Amino acid sequence: MLSTPFFVFCLLLTTALIGVAGEYFKPFNVSYDHRAIVIDGHRRMLISAGIHYPRATPQMWPSLIAKSKEGGADVIQTYVFWSGHEPVKGKYYFEGRYNLVKFVKLVGSNGLYLHLRIGPYVCAEWNFGGFPVWLRDVPGIEFRTNNEPFKREMQRFVKKIVELMREENLFSWQGGPIIMLQIENEYGNIEGAYGQKGKDYVKWAANMAVGLGAGVPWVMCQQVDAPEFILDACNGYYCDSFRPNSKKKPMLWTENWDGWFASWGGAIPHRPVEDLAFAVARFFQRGGSFQNYYMYFGGTNFGRTSGGPNYITSYDYDAPLDEYGLLSQPKWGHLKDLHAAIKLCEPALVAADSPQYMKLGPQQEVHVYRGNITQGLTTAFSTSKSVCAAFLANIDEHKAADIEFLGQVYTLPPWSVSILPDCRHVAFNTAKVGAQTSIKLVDFNLPSSKMNVPQPLTFQDEVTYIANDWMTLKEPIGLWSKNNFTSLSIMEHLNVTKDKSDYLWYTTRLYISEDEISFWEENEVSPELSIDSMRDLVRIFINGKLSGSAKGDWIKVVHPIQLVQGYNDIVLLSETVGLQNYGAFLEKDGAGFKGRIKLTNSKNGDVDLTESSWTYQVGLKGEFQKLYTREKAESVRWMKLTPDATPSIFSWYKTYFDAPVGTDPVVLNLGSMGKGQAWVNGHHIGRYWDLISPKDGCRPCDYRGAYSSEKCTTNCGNPTQIWYHVPRSWLQRDQNLLVMFEETGGNPYKITINTISAQTICGRVPETHYPPLHIWGHPDFINGKISINDMTPELHLQCEDEHTISSIEFASYGTPQGNCQNLSKGNCHAPNSLSVVSQACQGRNSCSIAVSNDVFGDPCRGIVKTLSVQARCLPSSFARSASM
Ligand code: GAL
Question: Which family is annotated (predicted)?
Answer without folding.
Answer: Belongs to the glycosyl hydrolase 35 family.
